[in-house]
Design a protein that fits this description.
- It is built from six helices and no strands.
- The radius of gyration is 19 Å and the shape is elongated.
- The model has no long low-confidence stretch (mean pLDDT 90).
């Protein structure tokens, strides 16, 4: 019985890795669409978001099966509960990447983003998502802690972008609509950073049993 349970835990781990890779694909696609105006990247992001939604449902069912059909010990419960929390954040990352792609569609003829720090913010956010997934794959507490620290960088870049866009709106009312769209995109990147931070915190909890919000 325990051997079967361990096999299912390995399957859960692999499913989480796959879902994490889809999140990386979604966020990378929307950033390339924003910067390069490559419409194929928009389609990739929207497709990845659909697959992320399906993975969330699959993993939820697997976790419920593990809880109901087996007798998990404390460490198993920690892994399963962390998985349920992480997939919620991953699903939100997919949604927000999709939202960014939809907004970019309306500003794709504009190069306004080149005058702000939004590209830097996008790259910093991608790094957080990638590192949060890698910290889970490698069970790397130090990397997870780095992700948590890097959220401050994303927050700082968001404030810079916000101030730049507010100043730009004041200087050019003609571009106001596109600039407001860029502000929305920056806000979505900021939220994605928050979700990557959450994932990293649950990685640490799954390994150590300690969570920043419950200490």
């Amino acid at each position: 019985m325990r051997n079967r349970f361990d096999e299912q835990l390995i399957h859960l781990n692999n499913e989480l890795i796959t879902m994490g890779a889809l999140c990386e694909e979604a966020i990378s696609g929307c950033v390339k669409y924003l910067i390069d105006k490559d419409i194929a990247m928009r389609d990739n992001t929207l497709e990845a978001d659909k697959q992320i939604d399906q993975k969330e449902r699959d993993i939820e069912r697997l976790c419920m099966k593990l809880l109901m059909q087996q007798q998990p010990v404390a460490t198993d419960l920690r892994v399963i509960s962390s998985a349920l929390k992480m997939i919620s954040d991953m699903e939100r990352i997919g949604d927000q990447a999709s939202d960014i792609a939809e907004i970019v569609k309306h500003i794709q003829k504009s190069n306004l983003e080149s005058n702000t720090h939004i590209s830097d913010m996008a790259r910093a956010t991608i790094r957080m998502v990638t590192d949060s997934v890698e910290s889970f794959v490698k069970k790397d507490i130090a990397l997870a802690q780095t992700v948590i620290k890097n959220d401050d960088e994303v927050d700082s870049l968001f404030n810079k972008v916000k101030n730049e866009l507010i100043q730009a709106i004041q200087q050019s009312e003609d571009d106001a609509e596109a600039l407001i769209d860029l502000l929305m995109i920056a806000k979505y990147f900021e939220r994605i950073g928050d979700h990557a931070e959450n994932i990293a915190e649950w990685v640490i909890y799954s390994i150590t049993g300690r969570h920043a919000n419950f200490s």
